[in-house]
Amino acid sequence: MEHVQYAYVNQQLVPQDQAFLHVSDLAIQRGYGVFEFCKLHQQVPLFLEEYLDRFYQSAALLELVVPLEREALKVAIQTLAKRNRLEVSGMKMILTGGYSINGYAPATPNLILLQQPLTLPGEEQVKKGIRVMSHAYMRELPLAKTINYMTGIRLLKEMRKRGAEDVLYHQQGVVTELPRCNFFIVRQDNTVVTPSENILRGITRKNVLQLAARKYPVVEGAVTLEDIAQAKEAFLTSTTKRILPIVQLDDMVIGEGRPGPITLELSEDLIRLEEAQLALHKQLD
Amino acid sequence: MEHVQYAYVNQQLVPQDQAFLHVSDLAIQRGYGVFEFCKLHQQVPLFLEEYLDRFYQSAALLELVVPLEREALKVAIQTLAKRNRLEVSGMKMILTGGYSINGYAPATPNLILLQQPLTLPGEEQVKKGIRVMSHAYMRELPLAKTINYMTGIRLLKEMRKRGAEDVLYHQQGVVTELPRCNFFIVRQDNTVVTPSENILRGITRKNVLQLAARKYPVVEGAVTLEDIAQAKEAFLTSTTKRILPIVQLDDMVIGEGRPGPITLELSEDLIRLEEAQLALHKQLD
């Protein structure tokens, strides 16, 4: 018998295929909501505190109140993880504008927890790197992890047509982020640089900055398309992708056109950091 | 016994309180969807063809396929209207990105029809006019009626604090639209002007342009904040609000600070046009 996956909808544990929202919800009516996505290994959510910090911040930016206090939300996440018993998974927390009476004004928010199995990028993909296309765009309210991904989703087709695997957003040549990832370059002098303004402040981005700072100069500041042309290496960071080398932007080969040594080194460091977090958690448990 | 209101969810007529979408829907996951909203008097949808044109256009801009052909959608609207028997109502058609497997790529769209009673602005509100605040913003993909209203909803609180009843968007002083309405001014020489770029092309806007053109010069073109300062009159148009005079923008009184004669005249003309449409429809029925 297949193991049934569960979800949380407003503090009720329900089989995932029965997790519904009424159509008056402001996410459906007006695209109004925020979310968070963290990674679990053997039911242990990694760097959970950071994800929760950002979840409550995003909610506050949209003036939505998370219906659970932080400790109660952690218990809900743990309960769901225990029930679903997944080896490696992603936990999505969605907070919507709620069942609006007039279809416009926010109401009591709905909170949903969804868990799904997660396949992390294999060694092969990391060694190959990816190509990305550039696109002039800035997310609305970039500091909040809102559910608005219209531009990213609309670009999926063009992306594939152009043989790109992701999109790098910029405004007048100043780079910000990818739809679901942060962006880094390594300069010729080995300085690791990542944009700091008009971006979502990624948890993996923060971890990678700390790892990089142990060995290299790091800078949080403006990165232009021209900086990428001059860079030795480039890579993205995200919860589900960890670190992926970027070897080409549009028609421009980055560095030597293959994953660079610093990117690969940081990628290994990040995996070790995750393993250490997991080990620490298991000791404390 | 209260009369139960019905809704359509994917071609199934269901009691409105049982109209649900699964949380994997791309509207909930990624704010990805479009909608339309038309007005019905005594079960007759006014200017339906225009609304349907725009609905299919919005869907195409998001590369979503409406699961019903135009004639079948009209039948669905009529069936629902007959069932709900509302005197004056709004019919919302929502088309979402569907139940996405990976929470990002669009799937088979979900189509929802929702009907609700509608209260049109009374004579008193029209004679009083409204105050609006300005805000620098342009909707993403303005030609499509997408569900993304994050900025408008986030401004609700500030709006109330400042005593404004709506928001006028502009970019570098070039005016576009209100979150849910189009914008017009009347120049000192009685020319009726409305922005034509980076806006949603409203059905009421189109009707008002035609009505105005019978009596006054009309221009579809750039309107700046400075043009508003110089204008005699200003008003908004929308399906639910018809024409509402705008008498103040931020701290600036427009014209003489009360609804102008051309605005009020067009308001009456619009009501007569709607009555004529209704009468025509009833004769043909």
> So what's the overall shape of chain A?
globular
Mean pLDDT of chain A: 97
CATH homologous superfamily title of the largest domain in chain A: D-amino Acid Aminotransferase, subunit A, domain 2
Distance between the termini of chain A: 31 Å
Structural class of chain A: alpha+beta
CA radius of gyration of chain A is 19 Å
- Beta content of chain A comes to 25-35%
Here the CATH topology of the largest domain in chain A equals D-amino Acid Aminotransferase, Chain A, domain 2
Stretches of chain A where pLDDT is under 50 for at least 5 consecutive residues are none
List the helices and strands and how they pair.
Two copies of one chain form a homodimer.
Chain A: E1 6-9, E2 12-15, E3 20-22, H1 26-30, E4 33-41, E5 44-45, H2 48-61, H3 70-84, E6 88-96, E7 111-117, H4 123-128, E8 130-136, H5 150-154, H6 156-161, E9 166-171, E10 174-175, E11 182-186, E12 192-194, H7 203-213, E13 218-220, H8 225-230, E14 233-238, E15 242-249, E16 252-253, H9 261-284
Parallel strand pairs in A: 8-9, 8-15, 12-13
Antiparallel strand pairs in A: 1-2, 1-7, 4-5, 4-6, 6-7, 9-10, 11-12, 11-14, 14-15, 15-16
Helix pairs in contact in A: 7-9
